[in-house]
Design brief:
This protein is of the alpha/beta class. It has 2 domains: about 260 residues, Luciferase-like domain (TIM Barrel); about 60 residues. The chain contains 13 helices and 13 strands. The strands form 2 sheets. Strands 1, 2, 3, 4, 5, 8, 9, 10, 11, 12 and 13 form an 11-stranded parallel sheet that branches. The chain has a two-stranded antiparallel ribbon with strand order 6-7. Strand 6 and strand 7 form a beta hairpin. The chain is globular, with a radius of gyration of 20 Å. The N and C termini lie close together (about 5 Å).
Amino acid sequence: MRKISIGVGFRGDNIESVIRQAKVADEAGVDSLFVAETWGYDAFTLLSVLAHETKRIKLGTSIVNIYSRSPAALAQHFGTLDTLSGGRMIIGLGTSGHRVIEHFHGVRFDKPFTRIREYVEIINTLMRGEKLLYDGKIFKLERGFTLRFDPVRDHIPIWIASITPKSVKQTAAIADGWMPIFFPHSQWRDQVGAMHAAIREAGRDPTGFEIRCPSGVTVTDKPARAAGMRRGTAAFYIARMGDFYYEHFVRMGYEKEADAVRAAWDEGGSAAGAAAVPEALVDEMGTAGDVDTCVAALEAADAAGFTTHSVNVAERDEEKRAAIYEKLIG
């Protein structure tokens, strides 16, 4: 059986719809459900509802940043959610970027590499029930606090979204899973192989380390619409989300294309930026079409070494939707 994951989002007036989506996925055998958090609704409130309304599906954040809440606050959030869900949480962490952190949260974006390591160490310490005595470069915690509840598990899996070579190597050493982004199909095997090598270099076994495929599949009879969404997302990240993602595309060999997207966005806005993303690159970043087309893409991702797969199903009928999930799971 293949592990597939879905993402759900709350728009303020659709909570019953989100709950139904989660329940259908839960009953169909979908492995995990992730809630994003950017500058809209917070992730934890929705996850609290879904923890209560589902039975077996894993629940995670994709992602929460490591600046807007302290590591102890995140330990409280996830420890509480793990209790509510009966031990089904995945901690999805990332640094975000300076534009979001400094201009939405008003916090200085500094030492992201060091900060994420210290967050992981502090969260793990609190989950284990140990006294919080921590002497880091950022955090100096000397009073020996512990959580005032016993966590369901002494370790909640931590998956990290990382893209720079240095941060990817650290992810291999400290995390339980990796959530990469924007890898073209042609580079899948190389990227997974590099991560496995980094895990071994850190003295760990790649077996059991989760790697979520960055190229999702969308089951739809309107594949052009799905491709358009991929195009717009890539353009936004290249042009508007800071240098991390631009440099990521450059490292993958798309400097000329990334420069064109930035120039087009600066001159003509989002539509122009999206139009500048080459068709071939759009096709490399995901797959959309009927069930058989998407299953073939998932099989290729399995062969490349990915362990979890992001899927989207356009079908609204719940029975048909569940049947599609079951086919994707295999």
